[in-house]
Amino acid sequence: MFVKRIAVAVAILAASMPLLAQADGDPAQGRRSAETCLGCHGIENYKNVYPTYPVPKLCGQNAQYIIDALRAYTVGDRSHGTMHAQAATLSETDIKDMAAFFADPTYCNGGK
Q: Percent helix, strand, coil in the chain (nearest 5)?
């Protein structure tokens, strides 16, 4: 019985580790920095004009994924002209704040 409780506690701790990584940025500041992002990523069922493809929703996305993606757009490892132009203007603090905002549905759910 004791071993089972330990296993459950370890599983809960492991599952919460991604949430702990969200604490690096300021989600309130991230909301202000993400205004431009929400113009596309905050619209339900939004599709890019050409080529036509769905624009991914960012609310609830893993913070580290957002950080990695924005860094990759900044240096050109991900190719998308609009995203490169947007990401290239961001500071490291902006990126972390925006990641904290998008990773926390209590902050970003208003932007859907």
A: 70, 0, 30
pLDDT one digit per residue (tens) for the chain, 112 residues: 554 555 444 444 444 444 444 458 999 999 999 999 998 888 888 887 777 788 888 999 999 999 999 999 999 999 888 899 999 999 999 999 999 999 998 888 764 4
Domain containing 25 — which CATH number? 1.10.760.10
Tally of domains in the chain: 1
pTM of the model: 0.73
Domain residues for 98? 2-111
Query: Residue type for 7, please?
Result: A
